[in-house]
Write a structure and sequence with these properties.
Largest sheet: 8 strands, mixed
Distance between the termini: 65 Å
CATH superfamily of the largest domain: Signal recognition particle, SRP54 subunit, M-domain
Strand content: 5-15%
CATH architecture of the largest domain: Orthogonal Bundle
CATH topology of the largest domain: 434 Repressor (Amino-terminal Domain)
CATH class of the largest domain: Mainly Alpha
Bound molecules: guanosine-5'-diphosphate, magnesium ion
Order of helices and strands: HHHHEHEHEHEHEHEHEEHHHHHHHHHH
Length: 494
């Protein structure tokens, strides 16, 4: 299904391969090509935009890893963004009180009956559930018999057919039979129409009401592309869809439906139908699908390893230094850089629980305190304008050296002094921290990957709660006592 996309993305990566370093322009060009590739694969425009917006800051802010090339890092970023776009794998909710009802809905010919049997077989063979299937399709003469034949093939019981009974009554009878017969799962295969008209929708709503299924799965044909996404929206408006089964993923569809569905409807894809045969069913796994699209599992693994190695090395180094009571300007600069990589102050704030709404307001207040993202960059620039000797021993910084550093970093001597004072305060803090506090600080400085990971998101997420003082109440912000020193807070004016 993803052949063309795989090929197009492959040639984007080919162009990046072998480059020593990627400029912002290289990244922009690559993003432009990726955008084109996604649009050609029939991915919905808002999804393409969101995708590019996800990759861009990660690519531009990415820290260069030692043992891999920038091109390989971009592959990893695209891989991660694909996984983000596809959402998390969500299994069927089977742990409810039995019988668990699974209602299958969708247009005619989308693959409902086939998928009902595929799923029943998998639940029976792989999950050892006792399954009953019932056909609610009173529209097409042979539909009920079709399901009965499939049932005999795979050894799954089907609800006996009673001539003339309507779909709502069949649904009730099926759930009742499921309860009395000790079934774990009852699958309801409904009738489809050629389009999602009112007659079909009200029938689906009535069946849903009568049977109260635990899962309502939309069966959608991936060959119809964005049309499948549109239909999903129509069904979702009338019944509570809990998942999507995307059929004909074995066909030559361009993948747009698979890539857009989650983002556009909020409903997770749970299964792929990958052939006509009854065992051609795949649990939808975003990581596996991303890997199939990119065909670069080895590169992704390599970059993950490089990132983890660097993180671990850095954390160890910093922890070892801190045990000796060392906290140099370089250590502080590293911390500032980590914050930048996390998306600056606003990025850090965005990761704190409950900060979404307050973010704007808080960012404004932080800016007033000289703590905005520009400030972070300047502080880091000041430190990098110092010589190694100066970083190790800031005491040598006399007036003329400070003037040189200010000129070198495009700041003022006052700014330099402020950074030095900030460093002294932080170093004091480090010394005062008892042994118990060490690990927390080390974690904060070099700890595990943040969020969805990826080189761009590397660096320790300061666990503000662990650092004492708790979360600053930014709704009613009182600068600056509540904020932990790790955030690079400029000294309080006395
Ligand atoms: N290639 C392929 N064909 C499928 C898949 N799922 C269903 N079909 C075929 O699609 C046709 C219609 O399927 P059916 O289950 O009767 O659709 P329904 O009308 O929604 O119940 C049948 O010929 C199936 O064999 C799939 O994942 N891949
Ligand atoms: Mg059918």
């Amino acid at each position: 299904m993803f052949d063309a996309l795989t090929e197009n993305l492959g040639s984007v990566f080919d162009r990046l391969r072998g480059r020593g370093a990627l400029s912002e322009r290289d990244v922009e060009n690559a993003l432009g090509d990726i955008r084109k590739a996604l649009l050609e694969a029939d991915v919905a425009l808002p999804v393409v935009r969101a995708f590019i917006d996800l990759v861009r800051p990660r690519a531009i802010g990415a820290e260069v890893l030692k043992s891999v090339t920038p091109g390989q890092q971009v592959i990893k970023l695209v891989n991660d963004a694909l996984i983000d776009m596809l959402g998390t794998a969500e299994p069927l909710a089977l742990d409810a009180v039995p019988p668990v009802g699974i209602m299958m809905v969708g247009l005619q010919g989308s693959g409902k009956t086939t998928s009902t049997a595929k799923l029943a077989r998998s639940l029976n063979e792989d999950d050892k559930r006792k399954v009953l299937m019932a056909s609610l399709d009173t529209q097409r003469p042979a539909a009920m018999e079709q399901l009965a034949v499939l049932g005999r093939q795979i050894n799954i019981e089907t609800l006996p057919i009673i001539e003339g009974q309507g779909p709502v009554d069949i649904a009730k009878r099926a759930m009742q039979a499921g309860k009395l017969g000790g079934f774990d799962v009852v699958m309801l295969d409904t009738a489809g129409r050629t389009n999602a008209d009112e007659a079909l929708m009200s029938e689906m709503a009535a069946i849903e009401k009568a049977a109260s299924p635990n899962e309502t799965m939309l069966v959608a044909d991936s060959l119809t592309g964005q049309e499948a996404v549109r239909i999903a929206g129509q069904f979702a408006a009338r019944v509570k869809l809990t998942g999507i089964m995307l059929t004909r993923a074995d066909g030559d569809g361009r993948g747009g439906a698979a890539l857009s569905m989650r983002h556009e409807t909020g409903v997770p894809i749970k299964y792929l139908g990958v052939g006509e045969a009854i065992d051609k069913l795949e649990v939808f796994d975003p990581a596996r699908v991303a890997n199939r699209i990119l065909g670069m599992g080895d590169v992704v693994g390599l970059v993950e390893k490089a990132a983890a190695t660097m993180d671990a090395e850095k954390a160890e180094k910093i922890a070892a230094r801190m045990k000796k009571g060392l906290f140099t300007l370089e250590d502080m600069a590293e911390q500032l850089r980590q914050m930048q990589r996390m998306g600056g102050m606003s990025g850090v704030l965005g990761m704190l629980p409950g900060m979404g709404k307050l973010k704007k307001q808080a960012a404004g207040q932080l800016a007033n305190m000289g703590m905005d993202d520009r400030q972070l960059i300047r502080q880091a620039a000041i430190v990098s304008s110092m010589t190694e000797a100066e970083k190790e021993n800031p005491k040598v910084l006399n007036a003329s050296r400070k003037r040189r550093i200010a000129a070198g970093s495009g700041t003022s001597v006052q700014d330099v002094n402020r950074v030095l004072k900030m460093h002294r305060q932080m170093a004091d803090m480090m010394k005062k921290l008892g042994k118990g506090g060490m690990q927390g600080m080390a974690n904060m400085l070099g700890g595990g990957p943040v969020g969805q990971g990826g080189p761009g998101a590397q660096g320790g997420m300061p666990d503000l709660n662990k650092l004492g003082g708790g979360l600053p109440d930014l709704g009613n912000f009182k600068p600056p006592g509540g904020l932990p020193p790790g955030l690079g807070l400029p000294p309080k004016k006395k």
